[in-house]
């Protein structure tokens, strides 16, 4: 079910996949939106109830004037308050992964466990894809054809507008967001104080194996663990069943008190 909340006079959209399970909040990466987690939500039900946010400038959420780190974290905090939930498990991919671990670091009392998909503690964001995307097309089929191998990763974000087909994100805003994501975030990563699963695609061009190992090593002994799956950067799309299995395995081992 699609729902909305208002933050600083901006509308944020989110999907509540429903069910009786324990809430899990999910945050997508650039070029995506909340619906990208539909397969995961189905795989985790009924034990877990996934609630995924269209982050600022994405999906059905409003565009924003700023895409700084603090802005994204504040949106997550407002979204969490709106839901009226206590401490929860959070999951994030890429952009959403950094947002998730920064929220966990800065609001430790609100996060019981953390799952980060294929992003590091030092990010050198590459926005070249954004600048190379076709801006619009007369039909969905034409846009998919022009996107080529990238199409499956952007499919959930394709939209029809009055002038043709485009995306549920603004390309120029995406570049701004990428630029703001770039930086050294070790202090936040190391400040996280809850059980953590880091998932890496073995063919990822974003998160190197050695960096992922260092991320685990810099956390308290036994607090974080690494799962590497045969996939590229978008693990939940390339290997959905294995991704869901890794997430489920981690969740079942969490303390229940």
Description:
By secondary structure, the protein is of the alpha/beta class. Helix content is 37%, strand content 24%. It has helices at residues 38-44, 69-83, 95-106, 128-132, 140-147, 151-154, 171-181, 186-191, 209-217, 235-238, 240-252, and strands at residues 2-7, 10-16, 22-27, 48-53, 88-93, 111-117, 122-123, 158-161, 164-167, 183-184, 196-201, 224-229. Strand 3, helix 1 and strand 4 (48-53) form a beta-alpha-beta unit. The two termini are 29 Å apart.
Q: Could you say how many structural domains there are in total? A: 1
Order of helices and strands: EEEHEHEHEEHHHEEHEHEHEHH
CATH topology: Rossmann fold
Contiguous low-pLDDT stretches (5 residues minimum) are none
The class by helix and strand makeup works out as alpha/beta
- Binned, the helix content reads 25-40%
- Radius of gyration based on Cα positions: 17 Å
CATH architecture: 3-Layer(aba) Sandwich
Binned strand content: 15-25%
Total number of helices: 11
């Amino acid at each position: 079910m699609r729902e909305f909340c208002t933050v600083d006079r901006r509308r944020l959209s989110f999907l509540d996949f429903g069910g009786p399970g324990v809430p899990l909040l999910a945050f997508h990466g650039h070029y995506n939106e909340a619906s990208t987690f539909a397969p995961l939500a189905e795989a985790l039900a009924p034990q877990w109830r996934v609630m995924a946010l269209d982050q600022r400038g994405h999906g059905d959420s409003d565009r924003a004037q700023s895409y700084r780190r603090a802005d994204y974290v504040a949106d997550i905090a407002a979204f969490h308050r709106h839901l009226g939930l206590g401490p929860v498990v959070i999951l994030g991919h890429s952009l959403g992964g950094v947002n998730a671990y920064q929220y966990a670091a800065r609001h430790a009392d609100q996060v019981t466990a953390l799952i980060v998909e294929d992003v590091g503690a030092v990010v050198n964001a590459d926005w070249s894809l954004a600048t190379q995307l076709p801006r619009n097309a007369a039909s969905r089929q034409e846009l998919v054809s022009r996107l080529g191998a990238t199409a499956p990763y952007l499919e959930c974000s394709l939209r029809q507008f009055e002038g043709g087909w485009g995306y549920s994100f603004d390309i120029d805003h995406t570049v701004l967001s990428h630029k703001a994501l770039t930086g050294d975030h070790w202090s936040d990563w190391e400040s996280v104080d809850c059980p953590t699963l880091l998932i890496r695609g073995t063919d990822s061009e974003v998160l190197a194996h050695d960096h992922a190992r260092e991320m685990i090593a810099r956390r308290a002994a036994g607090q974080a663990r690494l799962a590497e799956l045969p996939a590229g950067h978008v693990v939940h799309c390339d290997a959905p069943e294995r991704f869901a299995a890794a997430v489920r395995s981690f969740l079942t081992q969490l303390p229940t008190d």
